[in-house]
Design brief:
Length: 172
């Protein structure tokens, strides 16, 4: 995927005969998807302008300008949908998009050199209470770090590092 774009959804099957499509939405900001908004589809980042959108339990029903009937709209089926990375909303201080955290080196506040360089953030798991960072260690094992104030001490995107405090039991 091009780092200038962020995946926000995937186009599904057609709905009706007037070019409406089901779209699963993976964005934390679905309210930003509205009439007139430019999005991009597929590996070529085909520009699409939203003509009409209405929310449904599994995502949204959307119609794009230039795709007025079912047959033309079906050509977009299964394409991933993106927004430009520089068009994302600003977050509050101390909040980060998941893609900003993936790949950060994770260091601990431990004096023990074996524990100081813990690994790299490989994934972010969403849970009901808080996110959990999956840290891939050099030996291939994983450590799960809850995204809590007492465990995540600092995130420095400029240095590409996350400094954490290991709570008892996190490594075993």
């Amino acid at each position: 995927m091009n780092p200038d774009y962020l995946a926000i959804g995937q186009i599904g099957r057609a709905h009706g005969v007037e070019g409406e499509l089901h779209m699963r939405i993976f964005s934390d900001f679905p309210e930003r998807l509205k009439r007139g908004v430019q999005i991009y589809a597929g590996e070529t980042y085909l520009p699409l302008r939203i003509q009409r959108i209405r929310q449904e339990p599994s995502g949204a029903l959307v119609t794009f300008e230039g795709y007025p009937e079912r047959e033309t709209a079906e050509t977009l089926r299964n394409l991933w949908v993106y927004v430009r990375a520089d068009d994302r909303p600003l977050l509050a201080e101390g909040e980060y998009y998941h893609h900003q955290l993936i790949g950060l080196r994770v260091i601990t506040d431990e004096e023990n050199p074996e524990l100081h360089a813990l690994g790299v953030v490989a994934d972010v798991l969403r849970t009901g209470a808080n996110d959990v960072y999956v840290v891939q260690r050099t030996d291939g094992s994983e450590v799960l770090i809850p995204a809590l104030d007492e465990t995540v001490l600092e995130v420095d995107l400029e240095r590409g590092e996350m400094r954490v405090h290991l709570l008892p039991g996190l490594l075993h």
